Amino acid sequence: xxxxxxxxxxxxxxxxxxxxxxxxxxxxxxxxxxxxxxxxxxxxxxxxxxxxxxxxxxxxxxxxxxxxxxxxxxxxxxxxxxxxxxxxxxxxxxxxxxxxxxxxxxxxxxxxxxxxxxxxxxxxxxxxxxxxxxxxxxxxxxxxxxxxxxxxxxxxxxxxxxxxxxxxxxxxxxxxxxxxxxxxx
Length: 185
What we know:
Elements: H1 3-12, H2 24-31, E1 41-45, H3 51-59, E2 65-70, H4 73-84, E3 89-93, H5 99-105, E4 111-116, H6 125-138, E5 139-149, H7 155-161, E6 164-170, E7 177-183
Parallel strand pairs: 1-2, 1-4, 2-3, 4-5
Antiparallel strand pairs: 5-7, 6-7
């Protein structure tokens, strides 16, 4: 796992945008927007080899659940061994665009948090807009969509759907990232 796994998957899969895992600083920075003290349903789009997932699983409430939606075969294989060691974790080999049917199939409503590092810049505008809409619809009334991206291209699309959006630039990551907290309320 780690950087070698990312490079291998980056070469094989055009949907993988990173060649290194997220830094622990970025993970902590984005996850500070999560309330770990109460039970929640958390969904992660494109967890890669599980850097965010492992942090969340260590910190989430014992009655919380974490659903990992990953489309890359290599990453799914890595994540399944993590799932086998943690009964709160469910790995779904699928695309984030299918979030609503995944949530329905796993009886996950309501979803409190959705976290995503998938490369929205790789998606055409129609798919990006539809995914943001599906994400909004999948979230509980007080839900949050937490997004981290290489480029500052998500603020406007998020603001078109979510009434409250905060943005931060996180330098301590390779490459530096933009982190967004989009809240339904």
